[in-house]
Design brief:
With 146 residues, this protein is of the alpha/beta class. The chain folds into two domains: 69 residues, no CATH class; 63 residues, no CATH class. 36% of the residues lie in helices and 12% in strands. It contains four helices and four strands; from the N terminus they run H-E-H-E-H-E-H-E. It has a two-stranded parallel ribbon with strand order 1-2. It has a two-stranded parallel ribbon with strand order 3-4. It is globular. The N and C termini lie far apart (40 Å).
Length: 146
Amino acid sequence: MRCTSGGGGGGERVLWIGIKALLDSVPASALHLLIYTCHEDANKEQLFRKVKHCFNIDIPMDAPLTLVPIRTHTILEAKWYPICTMFGQSLGAVVVAFECSLRGPCDVWCDTTGWAYTFPVAAFFGSRVMAYVHYPTISTVRKASL
């Protein structure tokens, strides 16, 4: 099982630690968690196994969590924006946020991806926003000359 699909990095770990903390401190009857996913066929059992394998975090199978597949996620891929990539992806994130908010509105929008342009969209739909934002470092790659 690889840990790279779906991010697998620091933001994803922060997300699952937050979910685990909520599950441990809030009665399950008071929670309904939504995870927006780019995998149409995603299921909780596979996801929770991946979380255990990659991050050593146990999420119980009866966790009040719903997976919401997102169809527009492909517009976040850099290949669609050969120039102004970050700008294009940021606009794409706004479109994806609209889909997320329409398909599964939430009380608290918790972003661990760093797409800050989604925050106003979430607020427009009535969500409070919390985020773990890590800003990217932009660099150029130059071929070494021999």
